[in-house]
């Protein structure tokens, strides 16, 4: 691969623009989930819908349109159909319809025909369903509330309503999960014939039930086991006709998640809702992760931004390399030089990666080998601070 398939974003105002909406409501808390979430009730949902509209009034994008939109959570699918239409209209009235892609996350237990039809009517093009596993025992171990029957029923409904693209999520390296069980999960997911498959190694986020079990010694982390699971995933996906385009993501041709691709390429995105994160207008920031505090700030005409970091060229370049190298197509060093005005093609560290068999250099494009992708986190850590 001699050239990057995706245009490298330029300066502020010249990049693709995304919008991320965080819907914080969940019926229950999964043992592994570290995202901000709260129990849903009618009063909370109504105040949230009003808050989204208020926050959008504080977002000024000028004449720009949003290219992609992603609703995550929480469980966006918990919103009733009419409320989904209200939230969608608030966004499109303020910023216009996404020009390329609109994704909504759904849990199998929240998938209902009226909700799917409302999303289709609103303009959603892509559904991402978190099935996590197709093994009842492992679903129970994760604290998930859906069954295999619900997974299949929900998937069939999504296909019947007819979205352009459908993704399913799987989690691996679950405590007590065997490699053969993992391969069976992958094969089962591929048998559904989705357009996209995301697979995530189980992580132990602080303040989750699984993290507490880790602290108590009831479960453990085994890097060698995780590596075997990664290898098994790559083999099964290739056998199933899926192309890996990022360490955790696989797609049929034309079905990559553009919202994520632009994020990894360090474009711009605006986060709306409590705990929604943004990279926008020269800074990186997060909305306060509390519904009441978020609403109180909006009453004062403030978005309640926390963890604000000013974006330097060095920081953006560093992150462009770290996240870009996680993608199979790699990074175009010459394009990044033009974007950030820094010399990259003679960096000794990149030569070292090639010499160690962790990367390949084809012209100006640097990409990790399978061996390098296995240690991508370590490569990323080694890049920290080199260009900041």
Automatic annotation (TrEMBL):
Keywords: 4Fe-4S, Chaperone, Cytoplasm, Heme, Iron, Iron-sulfur, Metal-binding, S-adenosyl-L-methionine. Residues 11-243 form the Radical SAM core domain. GO terms for cellular component: cytoplasm. Its main location: cytoplasm. SUPFAM superfamilies: Radical SAM enzymes. Pfam families: HemN_C, Radical_SAM. GO terms for biological process: porphyrin-containing compound biosynthetic process. Gene3D superfamilies: Aldolase class I. InterPro entries: Aldolase_TIM, Coproporphyrinogen-III_oxidase, Elp3/MiaA/NifB-like_rSAM, HemN_C, HemW-like, rSAM, rSAM_sf. One of its GO terms (molecular function) is metal ion binding. Belongs to the anaerobic coproporphyrinogen-III oxidase family. HemW subfamily. PANTHER family: COPROPORPHYRINIGEN III OXIDASE, RADICAL S-ADENOSYL METHIONINE DOMAIN-CONTAINING PROTEIN 1, MITOCHONDRIAL. Probably acts as a heme chaperone, transferring heme to an unknown acceptor. Binds one molecule of heme per monomer, possibly covalently. Binds 1 [4Fe-4S] cluster. The cluster is coordinated with 3 cysteines and an exchangeable S-adenosyl-L-methionine. This is Heme chaperone HemW. It comes from Pelagicoccus enzymogenes.
């Amino acid at each position: 691969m001699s050239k990057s398939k995706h245009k490298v974003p330029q300066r502020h105002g010249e990049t693709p623009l995304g919008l991320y909406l965080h819907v914080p409501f969940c019926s229950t808390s999964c043992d592994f989930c570290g995202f901000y979430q709260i129990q849903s009730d009618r009063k909370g949902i109504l105040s949230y819908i009003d808050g989204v509209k208020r926050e959008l009034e504080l977002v000024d994008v000028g004449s720009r349109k949003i290219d992609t939109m992603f609703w995550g959570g929480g469980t966006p699918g918990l919103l009733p159909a009419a409320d989904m239409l209200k939230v969608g209209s608030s966004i499109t009235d303020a910023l216009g319809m996404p020009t390329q892609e609109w994704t909504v996350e759904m849990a199998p237990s929240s998938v209902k025909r009226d909700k799917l039809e409302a999303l289709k009517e609103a303009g959603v093009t892509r559904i991402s369903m978190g099935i996590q596993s197709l093994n009842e025992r492992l679903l129970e171990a994760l604290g998930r509330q859906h069954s295999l029957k619900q997974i299949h029923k929900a998937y069939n409904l999504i296909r019947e309503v007819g979205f352009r693209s459908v993704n399913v999520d799987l989690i691996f390296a679950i405590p007590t999960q065997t490699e053969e069980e993992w391969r069976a999960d992958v094969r089962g997911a591929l048998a559904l014939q989705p357009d996209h498959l995301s697979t995530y190694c189980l992580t132990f986020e602080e303040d989750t039930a699984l993290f507490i079990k880790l602290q108590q010694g009831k479960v453990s982390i085994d890097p060698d086991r995780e590596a075997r699971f990664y290898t098994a995933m790559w083999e099964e996906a290739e056998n199933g006709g899926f192309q890996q385009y990022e360490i955790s993501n696989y797609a049929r041709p034309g079905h990559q998640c553009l919202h994520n691709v632009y994020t990894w390429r360090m474009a711009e995105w605006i986060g709306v809702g409590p705990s929604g994160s943004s990279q926008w207008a020269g800074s990186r920031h997060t909305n306060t992760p509390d519904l009441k505090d978020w609403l109180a700030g909006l009453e004062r005409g403030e978005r309640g931004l926390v963890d604000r970091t000013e974006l330097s060229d060095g920081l953006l370049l560093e992150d462009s390399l770290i996240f870009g190298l996680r993608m199979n197509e790699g990074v175009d060093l010459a394009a990044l030089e033009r974007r950030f005005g820094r010399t990259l093609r003679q960096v000794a560290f990149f030569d070292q990666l090639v010499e160690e068999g962790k990367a390949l250099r084809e012209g100006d494009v640097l990409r990790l080998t399978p061996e390098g992708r296995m240690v991508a986190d370590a490569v990323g850590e080694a890049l920290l601070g080199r260009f900041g």
